[in-house]
Q: What sequence folds into this?
């Protein structure tokens, strides 16, 4: 390879790497985000950024931050370290998405009111808190298929049974 063509190849690689690292998160969100994901107040890049508000289906969080984990690309996944502050709780996890849509959570640590989970978990008259600590959790089509960790429910209130906490 000629020295000029080698320099041109290195220059093109550096340009592409810079484009990926500095690509605005706001633009990427509008291009590739699924309909179920809603973000507002987006700041930063696809490498590292934040949003003032986020919603995923029924799950709402105030502030969300992310940082790309480039080593996940070597496993064929897109990976991010994500932190969020849902109302009355906290969430932190490394999240990797495989090409088929399978979502892999690792080092998941979340403390939330049951109502924040939405859907079937937030039945009318149900209240309490849930703490999730999973070393690994895998979701396919939105359902857990593999998990290693613990979930703890505290101060559970089922108003149909009793107006006071069950435990």
A:
């Amino acid at each position: 390879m000629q020295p000029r063509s080698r320099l041109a190849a290195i220059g093109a690689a550096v340009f592409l790497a810079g484009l990926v690292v500095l690509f605005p998160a706001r633009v990427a969100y509008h291009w590739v985000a699924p309909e179920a994901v809603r973000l507002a107040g987006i700041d930063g890049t696809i490498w590292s950024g934040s949003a003032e508000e986020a919603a995923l289906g029924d799950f709402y969080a105030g502030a969300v931050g992310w940082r790309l984990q480039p080593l996940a690309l070597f496993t064929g996944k897109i990976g991010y370290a994500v932190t969020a502050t849902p109302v009355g709780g906290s969430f932190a996890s490394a999240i990797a998405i495989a090409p088929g849509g399978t979502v892999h959570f690792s080092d998941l640590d979340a403390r939330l009111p049951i109502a924040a989970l939405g859907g079937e978990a937030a039945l009318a008259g149900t209240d309490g808190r849930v703490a999730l600590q999973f070393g690994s959790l895998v979701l396919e089509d939105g359902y857990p298929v593999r998990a290693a960790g613990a979930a703890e429910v505290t101060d559970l209130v089922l108003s149909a049974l009793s107006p006071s906490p069950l435990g």
In short: The longest helix spans residues 3-22.
